[in-house]
């Protein structure tokens, strides 16, 4: 456990947030945004080295204590103990942002069973463990907010990502069920789910792969973590159950519901071509499937200025009064970009 928060008395009036996976990628971007808004933030992760530097950064940004807790979110007892540590150091938990993930790219039969289960353990059970630890403390107090970070692949599975697609689909069903149970209780505790498009995070530098010759790359239109974090902060301020963060997510969700056969044919034809490229083979780091990738990797991946910082639908998500027509226009824009990239992708 790191961070000066552990040396101070917990403030029962402070706003306290926990971010699982908060030392890299989207989780780090969300933690930074919360700290800038004055939250006392605790980040959970496996890498002790990054925890210390991130906790120090968040403490400076918030002007108050922050905390880093080393934990593997696949271990439910360890997550519960981490929640106890956070409440002792910072105060009662008001917000829990959960969406940890690891991944392995490859065809299902090429992925070893234990690697497949590891993806499920972290991505699905890690989310469940976080929600359980949070709700066990929030429900008796009748206040709090759990935010589940999901993915567009929850609405339609993506080839070469069977473990991740399945875990995110399970996470979506879990979140809907728990949200209904909270309503049954007439609880004031809220649960929100955000489904994201591909995001330009370090995950694409350290994702494991099985039977694939090249580095895995995101499906078209990777967004910046900072842009997606703005959507999370908007939902923290004004909770709602479901949010499709950007146009590619809407395409997956609407396509999976109304035109699944079309998506089936699209992925059968372009799924491998869109996710395999030698372009970034030299940027790869050791994978983080079983052990954390060392080093201060930050929020971003390898796409730099190519990553999308703004889109009509993302703007609409962060500006709730925006016209629906703007979001619809964004979906058309995204579809055109996806089709263009598929057309220009070299055959393999």
Automatic annotation (TrEMBL):
Domain Ketoreductase intervals: 15-202
SMART domains tied to this protein: PKS_KR (SM00822)
Annotated keywords: Oxidoreductase
One Pfam family recorded for the sequence: adh_short
InterPro entries named among the record's database cross-references: KR_dom, NAD(P)-bd_dom_sf, Sc_DH/Rdtase_CS, SDR_fam
A single GO cellular-component term on record: membrane
Listed GO MF terms: oxidoreductase activity
Annotated family: Belongs to the short-chain dehydrogenases/reductases (SDR) family.
This protein's name: NAD(P)-dependent dehydrogenase (Short-subunit alcohol dehydrogenase family)
Source organism of this protein record: Agromyces flavus
Organismal lineage: Bacteria, Bacillati, Actinomycetota, Actinomycetes, Micrococcales
């Amino acid at each position: 456990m790191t961070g000066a928060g552990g040396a101070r008395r917990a403030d029962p009036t402070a706003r306290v947030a926990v971010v699982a996976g908060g030392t890299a990628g989207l989780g780090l971007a969300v933690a930074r945004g919360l700290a800038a808004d004055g939250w006392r933030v605790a980040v959970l992760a496996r890498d002790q080295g990054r925890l210390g530097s991130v906790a120090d950064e968040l403490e400076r940004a918030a002007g108050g204590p922050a905390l880093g807790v080393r934990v593997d979110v696949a271990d439910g007892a360890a997550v519960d103990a981490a929640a106890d540590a956070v409440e002792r150091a910072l105060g009662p938990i008001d917000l829990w942002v959960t969406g940890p993930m690891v991944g392995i790219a490859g065809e299902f039969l090429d992925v070893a069973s234990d690697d497949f289960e590891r993806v499920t353990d972290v991505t699905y059970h890690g989310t469940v463990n976080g929600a359980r630890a949070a709700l066990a403390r929030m429900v008796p107090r009748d206040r709090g907010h759990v935010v589940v970070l999901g993915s567009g692949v929850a609405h339609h599975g993506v080839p070469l990502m069977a473990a991740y697609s399945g875990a995110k689909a399970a996470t979506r069903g879990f979140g809907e069920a728990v949200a209904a149970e909270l309503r049954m209780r007439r609880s004031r505790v809220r649960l929100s789910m955000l489904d994201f498009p591909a995001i330009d995070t370090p995950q694409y530098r350290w994702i494991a792969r099985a039977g694939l010759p090249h580095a895995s790359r995101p499906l078209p239109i990777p967004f910046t973590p900072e842009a997606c974090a703005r959507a999370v902060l908007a939902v923290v301020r004004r909770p709602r159950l479901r949010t499709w963060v950007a146009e590619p997510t809407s395409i997956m969700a609407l396509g999976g519901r109304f035109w699944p056969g079309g998506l089936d044919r699209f992925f059968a034809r372009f799924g491998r071509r869109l996710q395999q490229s030698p372009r970034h083979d030299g940027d790869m780091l050791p994978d983080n499937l079983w052990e954390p990738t060392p080093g201060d990797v930050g929020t971003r991946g390898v796409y730099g200025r190519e990553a999308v910082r703004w889109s009509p639908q993302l703007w609409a998500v962060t500006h709730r009064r925006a016209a629906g027509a703007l979001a619809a226009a964004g979906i058309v824009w995204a579809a055109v970009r996806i089709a263009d990239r598929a057309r220009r992708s070299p055959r393999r």
